[in-house]
Amino acid sequence: xxxxxxxxxxxNTSLSRLGRCRTLxxxxxxxxxxxxxSWVIRRARSAIHGxxxxxxxxxxxxxxxxEYRGERITKAESARREAVRLDRIRRGHAASTMTFRLxxxxxxxxxxxxxxxxxxxxxxxxxxxxEKRRGRIWIVALRDIAEGEEISFDYGxxxxxxxxxxxxxxxxxxxxxxxxxxxxxxLRKVTQKPTR
Length: 196
What we know:
This protein has 2 domains: 5-69 and 110-191, Beta-clip-like; 70-109, no CATH class. The protein is 16% helix and 22% strand. The protein has helices at 5-8, 37-40, 75-90, 184-191; strands at residues 41-45, 51-55, 64-68, 71-74, 99-101, 106-109, 121-122, 128-133, 136-141, 150-153. The longest helix is centred in the middle third of the chain and has 16 residues, at 75-90. The protein starts with a helix and ends in a 5-residue tail after the last helix.
């Protein structure tokens, strides 16, 4: 049975206070989450975009927070769905992406069969990372995350569709669009104003 917000009210809500958690720091990073995700995170309105996911408790670096779940689809189906999404954006509609590259053959679309992880927003200064292991995707804390802090990771979008993916993370190093960290130099080159 999942704990409600009322169950956590007025308590010291560090992971170590929720039970068998003293082994968290020594727990292998490749293992499943120790606690049910609903005990560790919650969904709420986000200043970044729409809904976001927030830490219910203090989360230590390296903790496996949640599996990114959804429908496993082929690359061809993924490309078709992405084309529909980009078309919606061109027509002025909001269209969030919830598709995650899994491997060379498949992607995960969290719109169907997804869990709370689909609401984790992008940040150019993320506090989590996505790890792919044995055909599954896990969201893992990059650093200690304070109770109430929004969970985020770098979506790692390719440069190709940068204009269709504005970023609202507010990080000092944010270039204004969601582009993989290793390709942000290309974005800066394109969006840089010429000097006279």
